[in-house]
Amino acid sequence: MVRDGQDYDIYEMQTKYEKKKKNNKKILLILVIIALFLIIFVIANILKTINSYKVYKSYQEEYLSLKEAEIKKQEELEKKRQEKLPKLTDEGKNNLKNIYNSSEKRAFLTFDDGPSSVTPRILDILKQENIKATFFVLGSNVKKKPELVKRMYDEGHFIANHGYSHVYSSIYSSPQAVLDEYNSCNSEVQKAIGESEYNSHLFRFPGGLAGGPYAEIKKQANDLLMQNNVLHVDWNALNGDGETNDLNIDFEIQRINETTENKNSIVVLMHDSPLKSITADALPQIIANLRDKGYVFKNFYEIIK
Predict the structure, then answer these.
(1) Which one from 157, 201, 232, 271 is the annotated catalytic residue?
(2) Active-site residue among 90, 112, 223, 250?
């Protein structure tokens, strides 16, 4: 066919059309493949992101769980720490005021003048018998054997205050001297147990509060101690180890029997000083004796609170 002076080859035109059509198909196929790759890539990244988020959430939940557990653990430790820090309340003051009055038979084992070489044996016996006692420690001895005071504290015993020196002429030189001795002893206890907040709020006058040549100084000192939220307690039963150094087990049991008769609530005076090793020997029998009489053992954590 001839049009406008040009020759047209229909076959050639069809061939070109077919080639163009094939090229278009190839391009379309390439575009489809690219699109599929893009879709797959996008989906893969979405899945990866989802998985990463799940992993992140898992780690986050685990972290929060661990953090919560750590916080709870710290709260429990702080609660236990606070429970071991005596706090003087009106209830505690009333409890101490009525320490010798109880319908329940109860016994407070107390040890003065330690710690010393005798103290570990006493602690071993108390641990074996599952009894918490009260130790009226001397600051000068705490300074020498802080590890024993730390053991007392860690094992749940109440660490009370017996002054620093136990030298009567020094401690009873004035009411302020008594308070100073209390504070000095308390400072040594704080260092020994690693608790700067510790204050027993409980003092036992060397020789007891009543009577003696320093009676008036003691009376004034007691008023001063009370003004500083420090109470005192003596005893209403004893094993006799403060009466003589010529001790034996039978004597101590005899004195326990004599001084506990017809008493429901007893605060038992004993000593853990070096010259009182017989007290450690007698302690298992003293405990058995009191149990046979129906006493339940307490310590001053149940009073000062």
Answers:
(1) 271
(2) 112
d(C-alpha 300, C-alpha 281), whole Å = 24
Q: Is 281 a catalytic residue?
A: no
Question: One digit per residue, pLDDT tens: the chain, 305 residues?
Answer: 444 555 556 776 677 777 777 778 778 888 888 888 888 888 888 888 888 788 887 888 888 888 888 899 999 999 999 999 999 999 999 999 999 999 999 999 999 999 999 999 999 999 999 999 999 999 999 999 999 999 999 999 999 999 999 999 999 999 999 999 999 999 999 999 999 999 999 999 999 999 899 999 999 999 999 999 999 999 999 999 999 999 999 999 999 999 999 999 999 999 999 999 999 999 999 999 999 999 999 999 999 97
Residue reference for tokens 């003596």: 234
H or E segment to which residue 238 belongs = strand 237-238
Q: Is the pTM of this model over 0.85?
A: no
SS (H, E, C) 262-291: CCCEEEEEEECCHHHHHHHHHHHHHHHHHH
Burial (CB < 10 A; 0-12, 13-18, 19+), residue 277, is middle
CA–CA separation, 223 and 231 (whole Å): 9
Active site residue 112: yes
> What's the DSSP call for residue 242?
T
Task: Write the CA distances from 88 to 41, 160, 201, 251, 288, integer angstroms.
Answer: 71, 13, 7, 37, 32
Residue whose token pair is 């006692």: 133
The rounded Cα 124 to chain-centroid distance in angstroms is 21
